[in-house]
Write a structure and sequence with these properties.
Blueprint: H1 8-11, H2 36-60, E1 64-71, H3 77-84, E2 93-97, H4 103-106, H5 112-117, E3 124-128, H6 137-140, H7 146-149, H8 152-165, E4 168-176, H9 179-191, H10 201-208, H11 210-224, E5 231-235, H12 239-257
Parallel strand pairs: 1-3, 1-4, 2-3, 4-5
Helix pairs in contact: 2-12, 3-12
The chain binds adenosine monophosphate and magnesium ion (MG).
Length: about 270
Amino acid sequence: MTTTDVPFCERYCVKPGTRVDLNGIDANEVGDFESKKQAKSALKHLREDLIKLQERFYAWDKRSLLIVLQATDTGGKDGTIEHVMQGTNPQGVEVTSFKVPTAEELAHDYLWRIHKAVPARRMIGIFNRSHYEDVLVVRVHDLVPESVWRKRYDEINAFEKLLVDSGATILKFYLHICKDEQARRLQARLHDPDKRWKFSKGDLKDRALWDDYQAAFTDAISLCSTAHAPWYVIPANHKWYRNYVIANILVETLKQLNPQFPEPEEGLDDIVIV
Ligand code: AMP
Ligand code: MG
């Protein structure tokens, strides 16, 4: 049996109720691909399917799809959005990037800004960072006491259940890179004048807290991978493999939803446009 005999949806999904071992997952994995070129060509075909499915999903107007992207700095959240969603109709896709909360956001509960950004029916919403920051950066940097962030795993599960019960399908992707790969990517950002703008000295402070972040990611993924809103841990050292796997899971999820074009009005056959 080859590794690809197990659908990616199953292979990378963290089974609800289990504890993920991030150290035990090889960030370098490339499945059965023998070259980057092969994977890129496979991604191109998948994207054609994704584009057609999105068109139907939008017209169907029955459900929404929420994609949550989380990763360490340089993990590839921006690149995933750029390369996987390329060619989809922007009218049906909405990207929200969550930054340090504003004063207004901080004056509300932490889910307030998130709920406002949840995609409407027919839309694909992508969260570049999300409510999970409130159990990641917030936990690692002690921005609130443990008694506050501890409760958030249950709150998040209940919030996501509400969204799913209201017609959302939720996919959560953790882009798994190793610490050495992060060093290479940070170095590349410093070297490349076109990438320097992405470098923040704060990234180095967070890099020094790598183990604390891995512990926080482990808890977030383990405690919040549910049947209604699963977490997927995607090997992401190789960007082309990451893109392929995520596109594959999106296509499979949309196929399962089986969106249909709405029935046209009756009596259209006899109409002649003059
Ligand atoms: P970037 O995604 O590189 O533009 O950086 C956004 C920054 O906002 C990161 O350093 C995040 O950790 C930070 N951030 C996002 N959400 C929160 C939050 N809820 N509380 C504190 N910092 C956050
Ligand atoms: Mg950054």
